[in-house]
Design a protein that fits this description.
The chain contains 5 helices and 6 strands, in the order βααββααβββα. The chain is α+β, with helices and mostly antiparallel strands. It has a 6-stranded antiparallel β-sheet. A hairpin with a 4-residue loop joins β2 (34-43) and β3.
């Protein structure tokens, strides 16, 4: 992540306890089939924050059956990353904050990427850049490589 975003917290869990998956905001039917979940949060505590949540399944067909991305070019631009993608509006933003989010599937992994910023602050919209990086890292991991993708 860019240095100006600052603080971060990263967690990963296997699915020996499905309630963890549910507490991370994933649907019950997804948690029943998940093999792992993870989350990375990044913030400068003043003007911007990013949240990346991952859920992994045993095979791409499972993820594909659960997630049918219908992102339009107006919503996600031309040639968006991933196998499937959808945009969404965050359900609850803190007062004075705005945000946007994307769900993206790459193989057997679905990521939920959310970018929020304090209204009136001059910060770049990094949602698509972060999403591309996440997809590239997932592709690298699925190929057996160390994930090294970064925001360029």
């Amino acid at each position: 992540m860019p240095a100006d975003v600052g603080q971060r917290a990263v967690k990963a869990w296997d699915m020996s306890d499905p309630s963890i998956c549910q507490s991370e905001g994933w649907r019950d039917d997804w948690c029943a089939k998940a093999i792992a979940v993870g989350r990375g949060g990044y913030t400068d505590l003043e003007s911007q924050e990013m949240d990346v949540r991952l859920i992994s399944f045993d095979e791409p067909a499972t993820a594909e059956a659960l997630f049918a991305g219908e992102g339009t070019a107006d919503e996600v631009g031309q040639n968006p990353p991933g196998d499937e993608i959808d945009g969404y509006e965050p359900m609850s933003s803190a007062a004075g904050w705005a945000g946007r989010g994307l769900y993206v599937r790459q193989g057997a992994v679905v990521a939920k990427v959310e970018y929020a910023w304090a209204e009136g602050r001059e910060v770049p919209d990094r949602l698509m850049d972060v999403t591309r990086m996440v997809v590239e890292r997932v592709q690298q991991a699925q190929s057996g490589d160390n994930p090294t993708a970064s925001m360029r």
